Amino acid sequence: MAHAWLICGPRGIGKATLAYRIARFVLAGGGEGGGLFGGPPDSLDISPQHPVFRRVASGGHADLKVLERGWTDDKKTKMRSEIAVDDVRGVGSFMSLTPGEGGWRVVVVDAADEMSRSSANAILKVLEEPPRNALMLLVSHSPGRLLPTIRSRCRRLMMQPLSNATVVDLLHRRCPDLSDSDAQAIAGLAEGSIGKALALDAEGGLELYREMVGLLSGLPRLDVPALHAFGDKVARADDSFRTVTELFTWWIARAVANAGRGQAAAEVVAGEAALQHRLVATAGLDRWVEVWEKTNHLFGRADAVNLDRKQVVLNAFLALERLCRP
């Protein structure tokens, strides 16, 4: 049995949920004899009433350490951009201690992609010399961003996106007032990620997407007053700005990918496939990729250097207008 697992897959499909299930199972004694480490278990489920379940949920289990991004201030208004090296330095000593309950020591890293270079090097030292009865579970949305030496020392477990039907079913369970047509549309935007689907619903992502596509449908001539109104709306809220920037770059990437494959886009908004086909035909795919790269860079710098959010949104749309002009 590998001492370290790299649980990979798209963001929001349940990788951290699986990591915690494995951690609870092992800490509850599932690793002894049969089960996860001695044979296939019937299930990784641990009853919510089990003492281990309750201690893990409360963060009070002595043999479990969780590494994740901390807060920038005591009021917990904003999370740090990465897992700091100070959070990682104690992992080696923690893993080498005798388990407090006589079983295993478990470390969950959520997510490994968010470690700084110094943090990654500190984790690598533990992976190179793993102690006995120690298990490390690294959640990764983009394993290619990790150090090759970290990837080589972990057993990789690839998780697949959920089906649209599963996402729709889960949306209806969590959001019973959501119409079936809206649930189907959100599932299309989420691409198999229930985490992303729930975030889109909570942040009004579907309405923002429809407004965004409505503006793009005017290309090569944008409706300037409508664009300014949209920019004002998006700039007012952190969630709206993040959602629109993600959807904007996703829309361009999907348009380019579909054009490259000669496929029509799956429509979230009626007429969207024809719109993408019309717009992509106005310029070469290399120029579309260049605009995608520039807007990605622009959005990435928006918060890093505190750029004016409305102007960032306007610049992204205007870049497409310039691209699509005859």
Description:
This protein is of the alpha/beta class. The protein is built from 15 helices and five strands. The chain has helices at 15-30, 51-58, 85-88, 91-96, 117-128, 148-152, 164-174, 180-190, 194-202, 205-216, 224-235, 238-261, 272-280, 285-304, 309-324, and strands spanning 4-8, 64-67, 105-110, 134-140, 155-158. A five-stranded parallel β-sheet has the order 2-3-4-1-5. Strand 3, helix 5 (117-128) and strand 4 (134-140) form a beta-alpha-beta unit. Helix 10 (205-216) packs across helix 12 (238-261), helix 11 (224-235) packs antiparallel against helix 15 and helix 12 (238-261) runs antiparallel to helix 14 (285-304). It is elongated, with a radius of gyration of 23 Å. The termini are far apart. The mean pLDDT is 90.
List keywords for this structure.
326 residues; alpha/beta; five-stranded parallel beta sheet
